[in-house]
């Protein structure tokens, strides 16, 4: 599977993070997008907690209060990022499919 998105309506509970990680490990997407993460902090620990060894790269926008928050995770073995722009309501990522040399954006 190339890409997945899932609005989990907040990742504040460990149970939801485990469920998302389980889906990622089962479906093996190259890119995984989470709108409305509602996380006030986004760092490398969040990437590892959600993506595990499968999705090791990521970009996030922190929620404002209990609203918003965006996360996009990717498999760094498949896609190398060349550019990234983010705002409170949008993340745009441009990269290259490593084996094909083809540019992709999401």
From TrEMBL:
InterPro entries: Endo/exonu/phosph_ase_sf (IPR036691)
Protein name: Uncharacterized protein
The organism of origin for this protein: Dipteronia dyeriana
